[in-house]
Design a protein that fits this description.
two-stranded antiparallel ribbon; 12 helices; ten-stranded mixed β-sheet; alpha/beta; globular; binds aspartic acid
Length: about 350
């Protein structure tokens, strides 16, 4: 006679092993919601909110990251949602106020640290209203111009800007955006601060369209948006914002660094980080942090980044505590600079 316990023992054993395997494989977090055990992410998509328009550099990073994250949690669905406007503050507010269930995340760049200094009335406090999930990558910027500009070298470009003071415009993605910060720093280093009119967009994707079409003259934007446009000759590039030229990059290596061109100490790289609303359960943030760490080791993600001049972060920068410490330090640095200038967005 069959052992009546055999089937169930075998069954428990089987399920024990399979469940363990499944949990390890899918990195599911089991969380208690209203006293009920639930798995995360389950069948509901995880939305990565990009606080700028679709098709731009932050969006590009988010879409590549969503794909890499999806691979780490089989069966999951990471999607990108664009919530553009006001230098990224609309999207960041949206996530700060979202349900802390791991299904609304924010991918934001240096603006996470810059917007609280520039906007005194924003509805979020980065260090209090978010869980830090780890940093993602570092992206250099490029100074670019419309294809019709007569200059071909940085020197000619600078002379052209000075000679045409008051007649040119510079595009950016809103006050506090990376393109805004870069344009400000560049112009104040050149001491031509009021030489150009600033034109804000909801992101640098539409700004790029305007630049290619010749409706705006100049822009400073991340290489994740500019590399392909430079390569195809749709815009003119004049310099990179990193301290040294990007010697190893097939397209960007042709441009000098602003520092080399005499802008002493100019060194600007845009970092990105991933965030969840404050109060997201620790089991979920751990699942997301584990998936992020693995995603950043995905050779395809690394290759895509490097192709566009960006570098995926390594070491302990994916550690949430390190990420938070870094943003806190950046906030202090940027606030001191903004307060010294006395110019605010609101
Ligand atoms: N590059 C933009 C910025 O200046 C943002 C974007 O469109 O992704 O911050």
């Amino acid at each position: 006679m069959a052992n009546p316990n055999f089937g169930s023992r075998l069954g428990n054993h089987f399920w024990g092993i399979e469940m363990k395997k499944l949990l390890a494989l899918t990195a599911l977090a089991v969380v208690s919601v209203g006293g009920q055990a639930q798995t995360f992410p389950g069948s509901k998509p995880v939305s990565i909110v990009v606080p700028f328009t679709a098709g731009g550099p932050t969006d590009r990073v988010a879409r590549d990251l969503a794909e890499a994250m999806r691979k780490q949690i089989p069966g999951s669905n990471f999607v990108v949602e664009n919530a553009a406007g006001a230098g990224g503050t609309i999207g960041a507010t949206k996530v700060a106020k979202a349900a802390p269930d791991g299904h609304s995340l924010l991918l934001f760049h240096i603006g996470m640290a810059a917007t609280p200094a520039l906007y005194r009335k924003i509805a979020y406090k980065p260090l209090e209203d978010f869980e830090f999930l780890g940093m993602v990558n570092d992206v250099p910027m490029t100074l670019i111009g419309k294809p019709q500009l007569p200059a071909n070298t940085y020197r000619d470009f600078e002379n052209y800007i000075r000679a045409n003071a008051g007649k040119l415009n510079i595009a950016h993605a809103g006050l506090g955006s990376a393109s805004h910060i870069c344009g400000l720093l560049w112009q104040s280093n050149l001491q031509t601060k009021d030489a150009m009119t600033t034109i804000p967009f909801g992101g640098t994707a539409p700004a790029m369209t305007a630049l290619i079409g010749g409706q705006v003259d100049v822009m400073c934007d991340q290489t994740t948006n500019t590399t392909q446009q430079i390569e195809s000759g749709r815009v003119k590039a004049f310099a990179v914002t990193t301290a040294k030229p990007l010697a190893g990059h097939p397209v960007l290596k042709h441009y000098p660094s602003l520092q080399e061109m005499g802008l002493k100490g100019f060194n600007l790289t845009i970092w990105h980080g991933l965030y969840a609303p404050k109060g997201t359960p620790a089991a979920i943030t751990k699942t997301l942090n584990d998936a992020l760490k693995k995603a950043l080791k995905d050779p395809e993600f690394i290759k895509k980044n490097e192709g566009l001049g960006a570098l995926v972060v390594t070491d302990n920068r994916t550690d949430p505590a390190e990420h938070k410490k870094f943003v806190a330090a950046e906030m202090v640095k940027i606030k001191a600079a903004v307060d010294a200038a006395g110019k605010y967005a609101d």
